[in-house]
């Protein structure tokens, strides 16, 4: 009996294997195939699943507006499991599907091996949640782009704001040892260096909490005792909501500034409105602020389909990535990877995503990404902060 | 000095959660020698059950029974629910694997853990949820000049009480003797007339149920829950159990408290980033000094 | 029958029946080679098959890396039975050493392949040496700790070496004598050829003295130590070798991914490796490879189910353990016959192993006073009393407040049978345990063959020429009878890992001698026909004889037997007495603990009596038998 079961199972496996191996290839006519590489499982599943939803919304909007080059687009999701090894396999899968371009991925160390594979296979990939400098600085990649900002821009913005606008003399920086959070923290520290040298300010706290944990009372007690004037938390919102509440409970009163992964609706939910109110955030323009038509349509359709709007910026950048790719296809008048890449480097004027114009530098970074200081208003929504 | 006491209290709070989870964990572990990796996920499931009860009924429960009553009912709900889940889990995933030995059971437990985690994600979604502030009973008061919440005190007291109850059952009652006998030698226990199935049912109901209660308390105290919150607690529970000594229930409790204290003090005074390294180094040093855990193991090997 | 056997049967490649009572066809004899040829052909042509894209080739690459990791953990967990849940530490070290040295010092990847292995092995030696004595689950948590410590250290970027959570990128690829390896297909062949070579070595190791020693430790570490196996060294060797292989896997991973970061080396990865070994079957080399294939391919195949694919994976793990808890390709011992031992140059018919008369007497001779096949005994330092082989002087053992053995002087005459008797709980076995080194005496000295053996470790004492059996029979239950006995000559052989893998002339000869010795002793106790049976399947009485045969196989001067007649009926006890007397004629000295007075009176030359840890009488059997104190000790004092 067991033997039969095993044999049947084995045959089923082989069948599934063959079926999944059948690739949908983009021909000269017919639907344009694009892949989305995202963490659908694993530690970042919540971001990946939101990115998927975002891209679904964007796909629908683009198709309703007629698609591109007279053809509709279709997006297939490839799960990269939030870890580098699965990311490499996922990237190869996307390559084997012979899609026109890839939107992906989230997490710089997860994106790194994937970007290498896409580059080797001459396939355009646009990351939406990978902010480490090294992706475009350490290596020259022709086919790699990103719609999210870089850590150094955010770090610099914080540094200037903290010292010049807020006049902070004692600065605390807290991260969580993840690629993203530590990246922003390091950049912030680097950007503060000239001020440190000029003795205009000092960093009194620079330490990490452990993501996945709940209790940061020891860390916040230590933080409180360093008496900071401002506290910059560059980690993610699940920990952010917890740590700010515990800090306030422990008696820390200084202003809290989150990095752009730290504050969203869930942060407010976890921290509680009374605590979250007044928290600041360094952030590129949010979808709620952008007044373009696309932003409005995106918000409405997302709300309609999923009963909420995305709670972090990254899924919106994923939608931006789709708009950028489609725009580039239109500008290049072709689905050829080289043409698309060239268009993305040189010819993107007029192409807009959800958060505004999608222009890229020669290295593939998003151009002209302004940072603003946002604030949690009394109703829990994020608004631009007026100092 | 005040900071030190504060960090101590922090440590005891974290520690009492570890202790409570370790308590349920070591019940199963002590008797079955099964490293139940899924225990942490049952703890998470308990948290979600409590959340569902308190939210789904639009706080009906808290409205009718008050905040503390609501908490009690949520804990009861989780107690029963996770107890049931534990028994089911044993029946379906573990019992068929007993003859194959301990190591195969570990794989089964790992599979169950992955299954539960992803199951929770499938049902409740991947976004973290939060126990709304409205359902959490929390008054603050000052103990020796330091801010303490009633919830903290309740958690600490509850952990101790539960531990005492479990310890009493295991050490002082006849049924407890049956449990200990089964832990030492299952086949001989059967020959002595002990219905081992009842013992197994009991520990697989009670152990996870304790984890479920811990989950609700954890949700109420920290207010954030996510589908992968159980993994860390499961690992810490295992660490605490070994630290205290296998099969030693007070040991698991003490192990948990010590773990929390060490984490807190190290994070507070040295570095948060290195705290887990520190804890594991201490653990290794302790085991080198006392190879069967702090309070020792209760077995003897005849050569 | 498992799938493999049934498939092979249907293809006509069925398993060969042992003992040659069926004609041995070309197919059955060459079954192994044919399987190898088919597998080899499949491997070679895989990347060129029609529907195999770079994606599937990369999957095959990762199967390779995880197969290597599985094989490395299999040594520690499968062969030796050490509970290791932190194996990714060594994987991480291999990967990071490659990453750091390649990016900062531009050391070529191909040079870093053995270097990563060495560093990982060295690290393993350093961290496991202090903790190798820990039992089971305690060792488990320590290995988890080591894994986490390594990962967290990588994240925290000490001395700016490891790149922090970002890790290190820009790692180059391997360059084999001018051929740069960078395509998926090239990596596939590069990896699997390396794995092939390693598997070849591992199979040889598995069937060598080293592999057997590992299995002895897994089955019963105390019995292994008492059979002359240096348990601590072999455990360390397993960790070191396992770490080296994991280091190689790390190097392969780093050079393909071109970047490494701490996220790849979590505790979950270690648990996955654990699953690989168990899914395949503990101690099974093809099993580990198969397990890796399942663990890597399964989530890939189930991609259609998006966020549910891990759900199914968890389910699959549970189902696997329910339906095939022994693994998909468990290591077969029963029914493989003497051929399964992997020893070269065995005669075609098993019986020829026991030539008329005895095998080379040099193999059977008790350990000489000076040199035992290269093990040089230290010089004689103690003057023994005339005719005495073993003497304990004032030997005492206290456990806390309890004195188990009190100032005991035992004298064992060469070439005679000495019996130690006394009521239960007198401390007899404890004394034996001290003589064989399992306990360290609190006071007193033990001299053997002119040397002080008081503080020596058990396996060293065995190699000096003492062997023992246990009161509760400690065999190696899942091994065959012949394998059990082969642990005896273990301590007299010298071949190490290298010799085993290379099958040096000396090693081949040693292995043949080991089998010949074992065969002879097995036959001597009348168990030859059970040679391929698993020890646990033997009836109780025969298990006793098996244990005695194992002790004999160490070619000792002194044979210590702990209640050898316990559980035997009258007839069996008589047969035992005959055997024991024959052994004395052969030149052995015997020391027994016995309760059966018939045996004691029947064959002993000298009797010592122990009660409550102390010697209460000593002398010829009939004198002791009538000694008033002895009678009181057994039967109690008459009330006046």
Entry keywords:
heterotrimer, A: 387 residues, alpha/beta, 16% strand, globular, C: alpha/beta, ABC transporter involved in vitamin B12 uptake, BtuC, 6-stranded mixed sheet, 51% helix, 12% strand, disordered N terminus
Which oligomerization state do the chains in this entry correspond to? heterotrimer
Order of helices and strands of chain A: HEHEHEHEHEHEHEHEHEHHEHHHEEEE
CATH architecture of the domain at 61-331 in chain C: Orthogonal Bundle
Spatially, the strands of the biggest sheet of chain C line up as 12-13-14-9-15-16
Average of per-residue pLDDT values of chain A? 87
Count of individual helical segments of chain A: 14
Strand tally of chain C is 16
In what range is the share of β-strand residues of chain C?
5-15%
User: What is the alpha-carbon Rg of chain C in Å?
Assistant: 28 Å
Instruction: Summarize the main sheet of chain C.
Output: 6 strands, mixed
If you consult CATH, what is the topology of the domain at 61-331 in chain C? ABC transporter involved in vitamin B12 uptake, BtuC
Mean pLDDT of chain C: 86
Question: How many individual β-strands of chain A?
Answer: 14
- Which overall shape of chain A is indicated by the principal axes computed on the Cα atoms? globular
Q: Using the coordinates above, name the CATH class of the domain at 61-331 in chain C.
A: Mainly Alpha
**Spatial order of the strands in the main sheet of chain A?**
7-6-8-9-10-13-14
Structure in words:
The complex is a heterotrimer of chains A (387), B (303) and C (640). Chain A is built from 14 helices and 14 strands. In chain A, the strands form three sheets. Chain A has a seven-stranded mixed beta sheet, with helices on one face. By secondary structure, chain B is mainly α. In chain B, a hairpin with a 2-residue loop joins strand 2 and strand 3. In chain C, helix 5 packs across helix 6, helix 5 runs parallel beside helix 7 and helix 5 crosses helix 11. The interface between B and C is large, with 49 and 49 residues.
How is this fold's topology laid out?
The complex is a heterotrimer of chains A (387), B (303) and C (640).
Chain A: H1 2-21, E1 32-38, H2 45-64, E2 73-79, H3 84-96, E3 101-103, H4 108-120, E4 124-127, H5 134-137, E5 144-146, H6 151-165, E6 170-175, H7 179-197, E7 202-208, H8 217-225, E8 230-233, H9 237-249, E9 256-258, H10 265-271, H11 273-276, E10 280-283, H12 293-306, H13 313-332, H14 337-346, E11 352-353, E12 356-357, E13 372-376, E14 382-384
Helix pairs in contact in A: 2-12, 2-13, 3-4, 6-7, 9-10, 13-14
Chain B: H1 2-32, H2 39-56, H3 60-94, H4 102-124, E1 129-130, E2 140-143, E3 146-149, H5 150-172, H6 174-184, H7 186-191, H8 196-222, E4 224-225, H9 229-244, H10 249-269, H11 275-289
Antiparallel strand pairs in B: 1-4, 2-3
Helix pairs in contact in B: 1-5, 1-8, 1-9, 1-10, 2-3, 2-4, 2-8, 2-9, 3-8, 5-6, 6-8, 9-10, 10-11
Chain C: H1 3-10, H2 26-29, H3 31-45, H4 54-79, H5 88-105, H6 109-128, H7 136-156, E1 168-169, E2 175-176, E3 179-180, H8 184-206, H9 209-219, H10 221-226, H11 231-257, E4 259-260, H12 267-280, H13 285-301, H14 309-323, H15 361-364, E5 371-372, E6 375-376, E7 388-399, E8 402-413, E9 417-421, H16 428-435, E10 443-448, E11 451-452, H17 458-464, E12 466-468, H18 481-485, H19 497-502, H20 505-524, H21 540-552, E13 558-562, H22 570-586, E14 589-593, H23 597-603, E15 606-611, E16 614-619, H24 621-625, H25 628-635
Parallel strand pairs in C: 9-14, 9-15, 12-13, 13-14
Antiparallel strand pairs in C: 1-4, 2-3, 5-6, 7-8, 7-10, 10-11, 15-16
Helix pairs in contact in C: 4-8, 4-11, 4-12, 4-13, 5-6, 5-7, 5-11, 6-11, 9-11, 12-13, 20-21
């Amino acid at each position: 009996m067991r033997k039969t079961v095993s044999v049947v199972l084995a045959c089923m496996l082989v069948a599934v294997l063959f079926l999944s191996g059948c690739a949908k290839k983009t021909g000269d006519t017919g639907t344009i195939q694009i892949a989305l590489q995202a963490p659908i499982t694993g530690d970042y599943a919540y971001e990946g699943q939101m990115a998927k939803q975002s891209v679904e919304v964007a796909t629908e909007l683009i198709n309703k507006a007629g698609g591109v080059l007279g053809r509709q687009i279709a997006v297939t999701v490839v799960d990269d499991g939030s870890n580098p090894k699965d990311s490499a396999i996922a990237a190869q899968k996307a390559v084997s599907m012979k899609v026109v371009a890839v939107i992906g991925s989230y997490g710089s160390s997860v994106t790194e091996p994937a970007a290498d594979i896409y580059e080797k296979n001459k396939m355009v990939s646009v990351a939406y949640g990978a902010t480490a400098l090294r992706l475009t600085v350490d290596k020259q990649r022709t086919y790699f782009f990103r719609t999210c900002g870089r850590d150094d821009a955010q770090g610099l913005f914080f540094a200037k704001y903290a010292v010049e606008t807020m006049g902070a003399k004692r600065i605390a920086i807290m991260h969580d040892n993840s690629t993203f959070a530590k990246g922003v923290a390091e950049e912030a520290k680097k950007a503060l260096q000239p001020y440190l040298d000029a003795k205009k300010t000092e960093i009194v706290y620079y330490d990490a909490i452990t993501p996945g944990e709940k209790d940061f009372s020891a860390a916040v007690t230590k933080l409180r005792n360093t008496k900071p004037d401002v506290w910059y938390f560059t980690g993610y919102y699940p920990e952010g909501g917890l740590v700010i509440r515990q800090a306030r409970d422990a008696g820390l009163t200084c202003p809290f500034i989150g990095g752009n992964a730290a504050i969203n609706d869930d942060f407010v939910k976890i921290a509680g409105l009374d605590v979250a109110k007044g928290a600041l955030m360094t952030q590129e323009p949010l979808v709620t602020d952008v007044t373009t038509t696309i932003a409005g349509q995106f918000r409405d359709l997302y709300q309609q389909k999923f009963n909420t709007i995305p709670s972090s910026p990254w899924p919106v950048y994923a939608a931006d990535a789709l708009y950028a790719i489609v725009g580039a296809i239109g500008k290049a008048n072709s689905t050829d990877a080289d043409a698309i890449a060239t268009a993305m480097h040189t010819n993107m004027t007029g192409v807009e995503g959800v958060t505004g114009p999608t222009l890229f530098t020669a290295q593939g970074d998003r151009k002209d990404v302004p940072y603003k200081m946002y604030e949690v208003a009394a109703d829990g929504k994020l608004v631009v902060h007026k100092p | 000095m005040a900071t030190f006491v504060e960090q101590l209290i922090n440590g005891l709070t974290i520690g009492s959660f570890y202790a409570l989870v370790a308590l349920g964990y070591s019940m199963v572990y002590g008797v079955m020698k099964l490293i139940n990796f899924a225990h942490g996920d049952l703890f998470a499931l308990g948290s979600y059950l409590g959340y569902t009860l308190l939210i789904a009924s639009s706080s009906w429960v808290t409205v009718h029974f008050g905040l503390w009553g609501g908490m009690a009912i949520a804990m009861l709900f989780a107690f029963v629910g996770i107890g049931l889940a534990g028994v089911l889990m044993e029946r379906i995933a573990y019992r068929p694997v007993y003859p194959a030995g301990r190591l195969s059971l570990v794989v089964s437990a790992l599979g169950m853990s992955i299954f539960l985690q992803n199951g929770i994600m499938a049902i409740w979604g991947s976004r973290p949820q939060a126990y709304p502030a409205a359902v959490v009973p929390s008054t603050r008061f000052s103990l020796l000049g330091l801010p303490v919440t009633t919830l903290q005190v309740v958690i600490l007291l509850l952990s101790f009480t539960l531990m005492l109850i479990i310890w009493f059952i295991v050490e002082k009652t006849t049924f407890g003797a049956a449990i200990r006998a089964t832990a030492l030698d299952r086949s001989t226990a059967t020959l002595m007339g002990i219905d081992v199935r009842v013992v197994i049912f009991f520990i697989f109901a009670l152990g996870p149920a304790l984890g479920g209660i811990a989950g609700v308390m954890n949700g109420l105290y920290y207010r954030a829950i996510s589908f992968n919150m159980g993994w860390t607690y499961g690992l810490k529970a295992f660490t605490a159990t070994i630290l205290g000594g296998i099969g030693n229930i007070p040991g698991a409790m003490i192990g948990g408290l010590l773990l929390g204290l060490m984490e807190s003090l190290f994070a507070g005074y040295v570095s948060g980033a290195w705290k887990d390294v520190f804890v594991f180094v201490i653990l290794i040093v302790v085991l080198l000094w006392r190879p069967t855990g702090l309070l020792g193991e209760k077995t003897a090997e005849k050569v | 029958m498992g799938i493999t056997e049934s498939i092979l049967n249907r293809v006509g490649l069925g398993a060969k029946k042992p003992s040659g009572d069926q004609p041995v066809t070309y197919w059955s004899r060459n079954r192994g080679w044919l399987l190898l040829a088919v597998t080899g052909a499949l491997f070679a042509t895989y990347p060129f098959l029609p529907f195999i894209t770079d994606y599937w080739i990369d999957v095959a690459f990762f199967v390779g890396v995880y197969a290597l990791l599985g094989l490395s953990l299999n040594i520690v967990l499968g062969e030796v039975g050490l509970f290791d849940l932190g194996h990714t530490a060594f994987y991480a070290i291999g990967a990071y050493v490659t990453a750091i040295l390649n990016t900062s010092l531009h050391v070529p990847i191909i040079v870093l392949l053995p270097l990563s292995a060495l560093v990982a092995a060295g690290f393993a030696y350093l961290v496991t040496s202090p903790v190798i004595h820990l039992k089971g689950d305690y060792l488990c948590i320590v290995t988890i700790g080591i894994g986490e410590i390594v990962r967290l250290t990588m994240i925290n970027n000490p001395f700016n070496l490891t790149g922090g959570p970002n890790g290190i990128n820009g790692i180059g690829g391997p360059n084999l004598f001018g051929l740069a390896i960078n395509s998926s297909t090239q990596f596939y062949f590069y990896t699997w050829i390396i794995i092939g070579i390693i598997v070849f070595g591992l199979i040889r190791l598995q069937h060598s003295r080293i592999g057997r020693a590992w299995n002895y430790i897994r089955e019963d570490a105390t019995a292994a130590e008492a059979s002359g196996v240096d348990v601590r060294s072999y455990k360390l060797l397993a960790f070191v070798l396992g770490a080296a292989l994991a280091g190689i896997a790390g190097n392969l991973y780093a050079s393909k991914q071109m970047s490494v970061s701490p996220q790849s080396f979590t505790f979950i990865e270690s648990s996955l490796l654990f699953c690989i070994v168990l899914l395949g079957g503990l101690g099974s080399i093809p099993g580990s490879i198969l397990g890796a294939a399942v663990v890597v391919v399964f989530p890939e195949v189930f991609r259609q189910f998006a966020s549910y694919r891990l759900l199914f994976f968890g389910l699959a793990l549970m189902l696997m353990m329910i339906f095939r808890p022994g693994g998909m390709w468990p290591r077969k011992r029963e029914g493989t016959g003497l051929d399964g031992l992997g020893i070269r140059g065995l005669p075609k018919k098993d019986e020829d192993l026991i030539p008329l008369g005895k095998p080379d007497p040099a193999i059977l001779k008790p350990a000489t006073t000076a040199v035992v096949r290269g093990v040089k005994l230290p010089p004689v330092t103690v003057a023994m009393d005339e005719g005495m082989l073993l003497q304990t002087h004032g030997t005492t053992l206290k456990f806390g407040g309890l004195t188990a053995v009190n100032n005991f002087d035992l004298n064992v005459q060469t070439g005679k049978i000495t019996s130690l008797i006394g009521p239960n709980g007198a401390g007899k076995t404890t004394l034996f345990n001290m003589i064989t080194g399992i306990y360290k005496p609190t006071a007193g000295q033990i001299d053997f063959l002119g040397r002080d053996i008081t503080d020596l470790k058990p396996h060293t004492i065995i190699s000096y020429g003492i062997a023992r059996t246990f009161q509760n029979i400690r065999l190696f239950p899942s091994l065959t009878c012949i394998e059990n006995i082969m642990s005896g000559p273990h301590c007299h052989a010298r071949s190490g890992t290298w010799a085993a893998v290379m099958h040096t002339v000396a090693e081949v000869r040693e292995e043949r001698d080991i089998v010949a010795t074992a065969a002879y002793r097995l036959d001597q106790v009348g168990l030859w026909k059970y040679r391929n049976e698993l020890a646990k399947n033997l009836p109780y009485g025969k298990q006793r004889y098996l244990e005695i045969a194992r002790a004999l196989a160490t070619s000792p001067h002194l044979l210590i037997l702990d209640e050898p007649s316990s559980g035997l009926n009258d007839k069996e006890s008589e047969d035992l007495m005959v055997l024991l007397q024959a052994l004395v004629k052969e030149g052995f000295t015997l020391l027994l603990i016995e309760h059966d007075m018939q045996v004691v009176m029947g064959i002993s030359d000298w009797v010592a009596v122990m009660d409550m840890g102390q010697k209460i009488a000593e002398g010829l059997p009939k004198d002791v038998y009538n000694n008033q104190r002895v009678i009181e000790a057994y039967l109690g004092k008459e009330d006046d």
